[in-house]
Amino acid sequence: xxxxIVQIGDPVLREKCAEITEITEEIVTLAENMLETMYHANxxxxxxxQIGRALRLAVIDVSHDPHCVSFMTVNGEEVDMVEHMPLxxxxxxxxxEGPRAVETEGCLSIRxxxxxxGRPSAVSVSFQQLDGTQIEVExxxxxxxxxxxxxxxxxxxxxxxxxxPAAKMAIRKQLKSLE
Length: 179
Ligand SMILES: [Zn+2]
Known about the structure:
This protein is α+β, with helices and mostly antiparallel strands. The chain is built from 4 helices and 7 strands. A 7-stranded antiparallel β-sheet has the order 1-2-5-6-7-3-4, with helices on both faces. The two termini are about 30 Å apart. The site of zinc ion has 5 residues, from helix 2. Zinc ion binds next to helix 2.
């Protein structure tokens, strides 16, 4: 089922989302619907607050470009990134690694705005999967960026908050039109 994606200005995008204490059937269905909604919108990630639920749950799929990461490990074992997509992650805990990199980002909740964002280039994220198992993923490239963007959403942070003053200046007209 396709869900409505909430847009900037909705207060749910600024909430600190709640931990999920039990993976119920409702959570499983919600995750499936979030994946369907993300694919339909041609996005690579979607967090629960973006569909109006302030829960620590998000989905990612970057398999459209097999070369968008230089590595991915699951519990320390090197894996094929494409085979591990999509990712559904619950209650993530993230460590930032590597030098900063600047890449252009957009967001399904901020339509029509894209801007360069500097972020650490690699991450280690441990999280619960839908089946309840806990895993740790290390990666870089677009997947590391997507993890950071989606986990920001779980803390009420938008990529606009991370722009340099110059980047913010460059998109001020688009932002005005969204207000
Ligand atoms: Zn976003």
